[in-house]
Design a protein that fits this description.
Structural class: alpha+beta
Radius of gyration: 15 Å
Order of helices and strands: EEEEHHHEHEHE
Number of strands: 7
Distance between the termini: 4 Å
CATH superfamily: 2-C-methyl-D-erythritol 2,4-cyclodiphosphate synthase
CATH architecture: 2-Layer Sandwich
Strand order of the largest sheet: 4-1-7-5-6
Number of domains: 1
Shape: globular
Bound molecules: magnesium ion
Largest sheet: 5 strands, mixed
Number of helices: 5
CATH class: Alpha Beta
């Protein structure tokens, strides 16, 4: 058994789409980043890479590489999962906490669980998405950013 932990944070920016867990969420701002800035999938990728001892997402997909400009983070997750499988690991479960003041993520959590379980080819019961606010404290609490923590277990 191998445990992995991933963390990511992205700030909001105007004129960007909001992608979270591979789902496009209607909102008047999106997250800033080199790729589609899907902070949730980035944290999941880092958890998987951490558990399999493969470094981190920045090492695999450098943001200086034009190849990854505006790329869907679903592609990054697919590549990470390939890596994990090649090393002989099976994903037991993934647990995620999204910290975000606005928009409300709860209504989308099941859709996100479905999307991730599809990409990982594992049962949806093995993916868990939780959403909470930062109680209006700090940059996340004033709606400037979304942060995500993710853990996974590989066998
Ligand atoms: Mg990121």
């Amino acid at each position: 058994m191998r445990i992995g932990f991933g963390y990511d944070i992205h700030r909001f920016a105007d004129n960007r789409e909001l992608w979270l867990g591979g789902i496009k969420i209607p909102y008047d701002k999106g997250l800033l980043g080199h790729s589609d800035a899907d902070v949730l999938l980035h944290a999941v990728c880092d958890a998987l890479l951490g558990a399999s001892g493969e470094g981190d997402i920045g090492k695999l997909f450098p943001d200086t590489d034009p190849k990854y400009k505006d790329i869907s983070s679903i592609y990054l997750l697919e590549e990470v999962v390939k890596n994990v499988s090649l090393k002989g690991f099976v994903i037991e479960n993934i647990d995620v906490t999204v910290i975000c003041e606005m928009p409300k993520i709860g209504p989308y959590s099941q859709k996100i669980e479905q999307k991730i379980s599809d990409v990982l080819s594992i049962d949806i019961s093995r993916i868990n998405i939780k959403a909470k606010t930062n109680e209006k404290i700090d940059a996340i609490g004033t709606g400037e950013a979304i942060a995500v923590h993710a853990v996974c277990l590989l066998s």
